[in-house]
# Entry
Amino acid sequence: MKGGGRMELKQEPIITLNALRMNYGDKEVLKGINLEVGKGQIIGYIGPNGAGKSTTVKIMLGLVTGYTGKVTILGQDISKGDVEYKRKIGYVPEVADIYDSLTAAEYLTFIGELYGLNYNEVDKKAKKLMEMFQIEDVYHSRMTSYSKGMKQKVLLISSLLHNPDILFYDEPLSGLDATSVMVVKKILRELASQGKTIFYSSHIMEVVEKISSRIILIKEGQVVADGSFEALKDKCKEGSLEEIFNQLTGASDHKKIAEEFVSVVQEGQKI
Amino acid sequence: MKDFIVLKFLDRFKRIFEKLGVDYAVMRRILQVKLIMDSRRVPTIMKNSSSKNTGMEDKKSSFNMSLLMYGLIGLMLVSLVLIGSNFIYQMSFVFGILIFMLMTSLISDFSSVLLDIRDKNIIFSKPVKSITLSMAKAIHILIYMFTITFSLTGIALIASLVKYGIIFFIMFLAEIILVDLFIVVLTALLYLFILRFFDGEKLKDIINYVQIILSITIAIGYQLLARLFSFVNLNMVFTPKWWQYFIVPLWFGAPFELIIHRNYKFTFLLLSILGVIVPIISIVVYLKLIPFFEENLQKLNNNSEQKKENKRFVNVISSIVCRTKSENAFFRFSCAMMKSEREFKLKVYPSLGFSLIFPFIFLFSDITGKGFTGIASSKMYLTIYFCALMLPTVIMMMKYSGNYKGAWIYKVAPIKDTSDIYKGVFKAFIVKLVAPVFTLESLIFIVIFGIRIVPDLILVFLNMTLYIVICFRAFRKALPFSEAFGTAQQSEGLIIIPIMFLLGGLALLHFIATLFTFGVLIYIIIALLVNAVAWKKAFNIIL
# Structure
């Protein structure tokens, strides 16, 4: 799976970002992002807090407007106001926004129908997918009683009901237990090998390192690195993605910060 | 899945929605989900399934209860409609009340609907057109608006049909619908305005204050509405003035004068036109502004404003009134909680508002009897004890919080002495909530009764601090801010009544003391001693 970097792109790109800029008030969040993403890639989209990851994803989903530049998804310029391209996208947001007073059955069928599927079809599919995640017994319970991991599983299912071509996942593994994490990682690989494009944001570098076929690192609204893990490793002469991340984001003084932190902890009176 | 009658009714207008570019099937589905969720708005505390059901019933019946209350206010409207035929006054009054009720209940109860930002992430990331979502939201709010409106005006409508005939009825109905639309748009525009210039926290604060004002107004409104009819002078002749064009209820009262009384004065014509045109214009403006609204909604979760707190004041006070370090800590903690927790404010501030007003309700009914000078030399200043009538309710609230889960910190932190917790909390309660209300009240009383009552006021204050300790001992004890609202409030409600009689006892002692020379001074000394002992001992409890 690895090594599907930008240079080897042959077919039409699925997603193209061209000089994407975005301001919130006076604050410039994105300072000209250029990207081309091809079919079947798993993109690890990483960067420090506030770098603009979620904003990029929200722009591509049409949740945030007011950007400049051009965003083309599946050959369609999304600023034209046609929402049809969203039918091919699955989305798991960073914060688990979910109508949790509904039951999973109600929620999932609702989402499915928003994608234009019919009720019985979604219901059957949702139930099956819940079974795979071993939460089928709570299919008809309200999600207020769910644990964080269960809600996350529902979110994952809701993003896949309509068999989308592109997946935008923002911390999709948060709250999942170790077994589920393994399963989901395998699912992502499998989906990518079926030709789906996955846009994956996370702060957990080990996971990104393992599953991504291409890693894009942004910092202060700009792309600072783009390539396969191997390519980044060669370039930065570091062993792990975590180290590469620290080097490229300029956070190399973490050791000093940690020492200072502990010394402040030990300050003051002894109790 | 549950289908709603409203939705079946909406199906008839499918065509119109589709003409507007709305994807009707999707909109219907969104509404269905929204209505299901509304019927389940369960407080988050109800986690296990057994209590979940009861909680749901409660919520549902509480909405029905509020409809019943609206119905009662509606009875007032009936009498206003029927009282005479000075329509410009009567109907303007009716619409004035209606507008106020709708606006405040929309802000306090349905802000969550207007301002739900989950909608955007959940629904808008799917292939749903923005007009479909906006329309679904608008319809959702309108459904509730109409429910409330018709429980308010339903009886009045029928009464008007019987007394004034079909034309009046149709006009009334049409105007009610216009008012509804107008209010929804106006509220949305108000939010838009606030969000444009402030951030989400500010908006939530404003909503909070509106809720507080609403609950105070409704309670006082009962007092006033009964006497309302003495204000309404049916023989008053309407004389047009330029500023009257800005009184919105007049816009809606004027058409009755115009059409039913065939009074074709220019003023009435202009007012009536305003009543039709302005709502329509506001709807058009609103539709144009929806995109900005959605954009600014993003700010709802932001809190850019960094408050510079005046910490020194709290620190100085706490160092004066608190003895130990942990007492100090709890004093500051409670000050911060009482200041910032909206749910707490919502439950407590209305009570404080009442305690400010109560003494005057009794005072004024006496003023009308004896006259102002007669009262100034009397002992009616003892009505200030009514100020303390709300203390038990508020003290009971001290153990509740919206963020009750944070209370684990009490268990984890090595606090040796729980009495420090309570002392700190109740001192903060006195300084932050009781003292301001009592000081304000005292100043007004001094103006009325003269400087001679100062010793009495001191005694009242001492009795109040003692009363606080008594209340605390009488109620079920729990750590402050450690339980969810609404869990056990009802069961405790009954104990309040004997406690209130106890306050009467304190007031009676005070009255007896005033009969003797130096009686009040002696009582003050006794009260000081009792307070000192009570505050030292009463909080030494084991939970």
Remarks:
- Chain B has two domains: 85-301, 319-537.
